[in-house]
Design goal:
Elements: E1 6-9, E2 12-16, H1 27-33, H2 45-59, E3 63-68, H3 75-89, H4 96-114, E4 115-116, E5 124-125, E6 128-135, E7 141-149, H5 167-174, H6 207-221, H7 225-241, E8 246-248, E9 254-256, H8 259-269, H9 273-281, E10 282-287, E11 295-300, H10 303-333, E12 342-347, H11 359-389, H12 403-410, H13 417-427, H14 433-447, E13 453-455, E14 459-464, E15 467-472, H15 476-481, H16 486-493, H17 498-503, H18 519-535, E16 538-545, H19 558-567, H20 570-574
Parallel strand pairs: 2-16, 3-12, 3-16
Antiparallel strand pairs: 1-2, 4-5, 6-7, 6-12, 8-9, 10-11, 13-14, 14-15
Helix pairs in contact: 2-3, 3-4, 4-6, 4-10, 5-6, 7-8, 7-10, 9-16, 11-12, 11-18, 13-14
């Protein structure tokens, strides 16, 4: 494989991950592509960024760049290169340099808290990101906004063999003796249950240097030093929580086995040790529901329940810290738009097919189905409709319209997979997770008669546009309920640290009759909102290709590339 990594198929830029640095992203290359039309020069991500930027100015309209491909194909790198190009070619008026600096520095910050090493990618985005940049009439960036999707919270407490937790934890351990962290008395990754499940080493990555870059980014974004201290303090609390162990007492109830660890975790979170210990082994149960609840009592948990509760608290805290980071970037970029001109970049998980696929992969693949539907509507179908309208003779190109797969997943009448799952969670809310999973798969087998769906005993298959995927239903209901018990929030909110109240601003136990929102409902709503936003823009596409699984330069796996070309719809583009 040579170093020509870009090509065009009609309006679509195809980008192959070279798995090495290339000298084609310098200031000289930016100058070369600035002001040129896409076909004047060899294909390049800068050419696509230039086309989007100039189209926005000339048409006074919003543009979006949709980057797709599987994990490790180079989506995040393409996103950063687009930001780099736009920052370089746009103006440098009053306040503009500050906005550019924030846009560029948001990348290392979001990668620290949202990226991790996986078996497919050493810097895999474990969340989806829709980054909007707003421009004034002169074409200068004046503000922006980030919407995040599907943070992989489960990674906080569990990683597959060969993978890591989020980068920030290893950065903190590597920089434990730095003035910003020394008071936390952090150990090496091997001392923490949440970090010692796999080898923490990543070739070519210096976690200490990455931590310094994260601090610099925090300063640029405007996160003050006090808030930085609290962020690291709470993340240290998450790590220590993972080391809390439980034993069973004579009545079969869970008790904390290592009280000093709870005391250390409570010190980081600034809550009373007795309050934290009690929250980890007891659950608050209300007699009645919602506004009719009359009495609350404490129900002791068994050891598996206590472990699940501990992990829920860790995931909850990390999720809120991540939201705080996103909110801080948005606050820094917040400025009332003076025009309707914007460029948006969508960098989201690629389609995932693993040996074992669960609820996370199902949600990710659903969003990819929705994006593929947009691609079909705006590129494949629209192009042929234009030929037909203009009377141009051509041989019609057949393509798979995945609208029926989207309906299978998100439909309410007849009920789709998400609706059946939500109903099972709602009507069987007092049952254990495994029992609800069994109800869900039983109902799915009875209610869904669809050519793209096959139900099994503890699994189901969906024939996606990218191929058939088998999902194991174990854990579907618990992850869909995404239930954080109020007593855990109450425990964290009891912290004497004001930062805790910033993370959990909502009132707890307000007597609302409203059913909790499920994870499935949230992702359906977010996907619908995303599609609505994209429909308002002129689209530009980058299809990223991963040439091999070994992450080695010069290695071309023809069968693997052929599969990606097929499910990305590139064959239809060529025809």
């Amino acid at each position: 494989m040579n170093d020509f990594i870009y090509t065009y198929i009609g309006p679509v830029l195809v980008s192959v991950n070279p798995f090495k640095g290339l000298p084609i992203y310098t200031d000289k290359f930016i100058e070369t592509y600035c002001g040129k039309y896409p076909y004047e020069l060899p294909p390049h991500v800068y050419a696509l960024a230039e086309d989007a930027y100039r189209s926005m100015l000339s048409e006074e309209s919003s543009q979006c760049i949709i980057i797709s491909g599987e994990s490790g194909a180079g989506k995040t790198e393409a996103s950063k290169l687009i930001m780099q190009y736009i920052a370089a070619v746009s103006g440098n008026g009053k306040g503009v340099e500050r906005v550019k600096h924030i846009i560029l520095e948001s990348n290392p910050l979001l990668e620290a808290f949202g990226n991790a090493k996986t078996n497919r990618n050493n810097n895999s985005s474990r969340f989806g990101k829709y980054f909007q940049i707003f421009f004034n009439v002169a074409g200068d960036p004046e503000g922006g906004a980030i919407t995040n999707y599907l943070l992989e919270k489960s990674r906080v407490v569990f990683q597959n063999p060969g993978e890591r937790n989020f980068h920030i934890f290893y950065q903190m351990c590597a920089a434990a003796q730095e003035p910003e962290l020394i008071a936390l008395n952090l150990g090496s990754p091997s001392t923490y249950s949440y970090l010692s499940q796999t080898d923490p080493f990543v070739p070519g990555v210096n976690d200490y240097e990455e931590f310094r870059a994260t601090l610099d980014a925090m300063d640029v974004i405007g996160i003050d030093r006090t808030s930085q201290t609290h962020i690291f303090q709470f993340l240290a609390g998450v790590l220590v929580l993972g080391n809390v162990q439980f034993v069973e007492d004579s009545q079969g109830h869970a008790q904390v086995a290592n009280r000093p660890v709870v005391e250390l975790a409570s010190k980081h979170l600034q809550v009373k040790p007795d309050v934290l210990a009690h929250a980890l082994v007891h659950r608050s149960i209300s007699a009645g529901a919602g506004a009719t609840a009359k009495e609350t009592y404490q129900s002791p948990m068994n050891v598996p329940q206590a472990i699940a509760t501990r992990d829920s608290m860790a995931k909850m805290i990390y999720d809120r810290v991540f939201d705080f980071i996103i909110g801080s970037v948005n606050k820094a970029l917040n400025a009332p738009p003076t025009t309707t001109m914007s460029i948006s970049v969508l960098d989201i998980y690629g389609f995932e097919i693993f040996e074992k696929n669960g609820f996370e992969q199902f949600c990710i693949n659903f969003v990819n189905e929705k994006l593929q539907q947009i691609f079909i509507e705006l590129i494949l179908r629209a192009e042929q409709d234009e030929y037909r309208a203009e009377g141009i003779e051509w041989i019609p190109v057949s393509f798979f319209n995945n609208k029926i797969v989207c309906g299978l997943i998100e439909s309410t009448k007849p009920p789709g997979i998400f609706s059946i799952l939500d109903d099972a969670c709602k009507t069987s809310y007092r049952s254990e997770g495994k029992d609800i999973d069994a109800i869900f798969i039983e109902r799915s087998g009875k209610l869904i008669q669809h050519e793209h769906f096959v139900a099994g005993v503890d699994k189901f298959d969906v024939k996606h546009y990218a191929g058939q995927v088998r999902y194991l239903v174990d854990g579907f209901s618990d992850k869909n309920k995404d239930q954080i018990f109020d007593h855990l929030k109450t425990c964290v909110k009891s912290s004497t640290c004001a930062f805790a109240k910033a993370l959990f601003p909502e009132e707890i136990g307000d007597g609302s009759r409203k059913s909790p929102t499920t994870a499935g409902f949230k992702i359906r709503s977010q996907a619908a909102q995303l599609v609505s936003e994209l429909a308002k823009c002129t689209p530009h596409y980058i299809r990223c290709i991963k040439p091999n699984e070994s992450k080695c330069s010069g290695n071309w796996d023809a069968a693997r590339v052929r599969h990606q070309v097929q499910y990305l719809g590139l064959l239809e583009n060529v025809r």
